[in-house]
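User: C-alpha cells for this complex, please. No commentary.
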Amino acid sequence: MNLWFTEDHSPYARFSFRVEEHLYTATSEFQKIDVFQTTEFGRILTLDGYVMVTEKDEFIYHDMIVHVPMATNPSIQKVLVIGAGDGGTVRELTRYPSIKKIDMVEIDEQVVKVCQEFLPQTAAQLTDPRVTLYFEDGLKFVRQQENAYDLIIVDSTDPFGPGEGLFTKEFYGNCYKALNEQGILVNQHESPFYAEDARGMQRAHKSIMGFFPVSKVYQAHIPTYPSGHWLFGLASKKYDPIEDLDSDAWNALGLQTKYYNTKLHVGSFALPNYVKELLIHAK
Amino acid sequence: MNLWFTEDHSPYARFSFRVEEHLYTATSEFQKIDVFQTTEFGRILTLDGYVMVTEKDEFIYHDMIVHVPMATNPSIQKVLVIGAGDGGTVRELTRYPSIKKIDMVEIDEQVVKVCQEFLPQTAAQLTDPRVTLYFEDGLKFVRQQENAYDLIIVDSTDPFGPGEGLFTKEFYGNCYKALNEQGILVNQHESPFYAEDARGMQRAHKSIMGFFPVSKVYQAHIPTYPSGHWLFGLASKKYDPIEDLDSDAWNALGLQTKYYNTKLHVGSFALPNYVKELLIHAK
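Assistant:
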C-alpha cells in the first residue's frame, strides 16, 4: 500500500505524509475530522484537511505556547484556553502545581472525544481536576468574562472556518477585559512566509496591539506547519516577556522539556528582518 | 498544465513545488542538474533531485552562512568558500569592502555555468575581481593550504554524493590547518529533525569539535530545506560568536539584510533541548 495524505501549504506548495492507516473520519457540526497513522510523524489529526497536531512534533508547539507565558509570570493561577481540542496545551499547563484553575473552551466536542480516543499523548490530562471543559463558542464565552484570568491562550485553528471569529478586534478586546491587571494573552499567529498566512498574522498582531501596552512576537521551528516557521503573539498588561523573565525561578521548577529552555525563550523573540517589516506594516 | 516537482524530505515525508517550466536539465560529470521555474519560489536549482536554492528563500541561508562569521570577526580579509556553486555565499561576502580575497572551490563547473545563466540573483557577483574560481575537489584543495585564510565556509551539498568527503574528519583537520590563528570555520550542518539528516549533523559536529577549541551550532528557518529547521556549525581557533560579537561595528557597516540582524545572531545560538541532546550525544 502506498497511501499519502497531502496538505496544500500554499496554492503552489504541498506537504505529504506517508499514511499507514486512516484511523478515523467523520464530519461534525463544525468541520471534517480525520486521524491518520503515519510512518514518520506517528498519529496526526487533521481538521478540514489541515494538520492540527502530529505525535512527532506537537511538543514544539505546546512547549512554546505554554512555557513562554508561564516563565514570564510564574505566579499565574487562573488560565483560560480557547480551542486546543487535542489537549496538548492543557497537558503542559497541568505540569505547574501553582495553577489552580484551567477553563478550556472548545467549540467542537467531537474533536475532544476523538483526541481522547486516538491521541492520548496530548489528551490524557483533560481529566485533571483543575480543568473545566466548556463546549461552546470561545468568542461568546470570553464576552461574558471580566477581570477573571491571569492568562488566556488562544490555541485556535487557522483564521478561516470555525476559528475565523478568533482573529477579530472584538475578540481580542474581550480578551483584554477578561484578563486581570497582570493578564497575559498568547495567540497562535500563523507563519510569516506564505502570503495568505502572513496576512492572518499581520491582522492578528495589529488587532492585539490596539488593546495591550506590551505586544511582542516570538517564533518556533514547527516542521509540520506551513513553512516550518511559526509565530506566536504574547500581549500583556504589565509583564514583558524578556525583562520579566526569571530564568532561575523557572529552572527551579525542574520541568523536563524537549524544546523549551529559558535561553531559547529569549532567543525566540529575536525575529528576522523580513518578519519585523511585516509587523511594522501590519494592517 | 499541472506539473509538480517533488522532493523526499524523509522516506515518509515529501515536499512538492508547482512548476511552470522545466528550464534546464543535464547530467554533468558529477550529478544531475535541473532548473525549474516555480510559481511560489521563483526559479529553483536541484542537484540529483534535491533542492539546493530557491529564489524566494535563498536569502535566509546566505545571510546566515556569511553574516554570522563576518559579525563575529569584522577584520576578516581572506576567505575560502567550498562548494557554493550557485554564488549566493560569494554575493554576500562581496558586500564587505574589508574582504580582499575570496577563493571559491566548486567541484562542478557546470553548476556554476548553469547558475550564471539561470540564477543571476545568486551568481551575479562571481565576476567580482576579488573572487578566484577553482573547479576542483575541495577536499584536495584544502589539503594544500596552510595558515592561509581568516574564514572557511563549507557550503556543500548533503553528506552523500559529491559532497560526502566534506563531512569527514580528514577534511575538517585540513580546514584547521588551512586557517590562520584567527581562523573561523562555518559549515552547513543539515537538519536535526529527520533521523538521517540528524546523523549527518552529529557526525560533522563531532568531527569539528575534535580540532577547534570553540565549536558552536546555530539555527535558521529555511522553509524549502527538509523540516525548515536548519543548522550551521561555527568553529573557531579564537573568536566566540556571542562574546566577540560587536553589534555596533556590524551595524555601522550599513548592510541591508532581509533575514540577519545582530539580535537574531545571538538568538540563533539558543537551541531547543532536543537539539542540544543530539549534539551532546554526537558520535
